[in-house]
Specification:
The N and C termini lie far apart (about 45 Å). The chain is mainly β. It contains 1 helix and 19 strands. It is about 0% helix and about 40% strand. It has one helix at about 140-145, and strands at about 5, 15, 30-35, 40, 55, 60, 75, 80, 85, 95, 100-105, 110, 115-120, 125, 130-135, 150, 155-160, 175-180, 185. The radius of gyration is 17 Å and the shape is globular. The strands form 3 sheets. It has an 8-stranded parallel β-sheet, with no helix packed on it. Strands 1-3-5-7-10-13 form a 6-stranded parallel β-sheet.
Length: about 190
């Protein structure tokens, strides 16, 4: 089916009630979000309706990973907002480029699968009172996050395990900046 385009102006919020199958009876279309406003995806399993999501302006908000369709998410100089807890799956690749925002709501966690989370040479602003969790069990952060600059304006950054940003032989260059009122925690050693 034909791709879907949502241009939401600055200061506006567009809430999508539901998605429909494409013109050909399938959900094989991509969604493109432009404009500085906010697009709120339906709180439903949208994996059968669209494939990839391109966020090229403003913010796209969802409560669960299944709200984002079945393919990848590409965020370019824009942002994602999570209103519920999400543990990223290995099949849901998220790629940030440029300067982006990751907003995690109060009492919500965004657990990153570092094998599918790419943000080389990106400046990422973490907003919202919720937690971002990096899990050692996924490994492989060395190349995917190299050269990134995380600026935590609120909430918590939790490293679940050691060797998240590098181990005894591999290193990556990641700048972590925590503003007043934010929290950084880990449950064991952390080579930096």
């Amino acid at each position: 089916g034909a791709n879907r385009y949502f241009d939401v102006p600055e200061g506006k919020i567009l809430t999508v009630g539901s998605f429909a199958l494409g013109d050909d009876g399938t959900g094989l279309y991509d969604i493109y979000k432009t404009g500085a406003g906010r697009l709120v995806l339906p709180a439903a399993d949208n994996t059968g309706y669209f494939v990839n999501l391109y966020v090229q302006g403003g913010v796209v908000q969802a409560a669960a990973e299944k709200n984002f369709g079945s393919g990848f998410i590409n965020v370019s100089n824009s942002g994602l907002a999570f209103t519920g807890s999400v543990t990223q799956s290995q099949t849901k690749r998220v790629t940030f480029s440029g300067t982006c925002v990751l907003d995690v709501a109060t009492n919500a966690d965004f657990t990153i699968n570092t094998n599918s989370f790419w943000m080389q040479n990106v400046t990422l602003y973490k907003r919202g009172a919720g937690r971002v969790i990096l899990n050692e069990n996924y490994g492989n952060t060395y190349g995917q996050m190299n050269g990134s600059h995380w600026i935590f304006e609120s909430g918590t950054f939790y490293l679940n395990g050691g060797d998240v940003f590098g181990n005894h032989t591999s290193r990556s260059s990641v700048l972590l900046e925590f503003l007043e009122g934010t929290t950084f925690s880990t449950d064991r050693h952390l080579p930096l």
